[in-house]
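Lab notebook page, bench 4
Experiment: in silico fold of construct C2
Operator: M.H.
Input chain length: 108 residues
Purpose: comparison with the prior construct
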Amino acid sequence: MDEKPGYLELGEAYPGQEGFLIGDEQGLRRLRQAIDVALEQGECLDMPLGEFGGVRVLPTEFFTEEEAYEECGSWACLLILLLLLVLLAIFLVGLYVTVTTLWHWIGQ
């Protein structure tokens, strides 16, 4: 008979458990095993951990460098901004044409 993986979840969906990693005893024991594997091998992806895909060890610099929080590269952000400006310009031209057409239509 297969051993049940237990339950392991973020507590955000449960009142009073926000900010906690929660689980039953079996789920937490399995998490402990996955952490041990990750500490030895760098990651553990082959163990059922509830809603989590695995455990991974990252260097401290990952959490302390500002670049880790950058959502897009400078060229990608510039391209997105340019696209949004073009869309805004098209919208404003369309608005101008609509308003002037209505103005001339009402004036006649």
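Observations: Residues 1-57 form one domain. The helical segments are 25-41, 60-64, 74-107.
Next step: discuss at group meeting.
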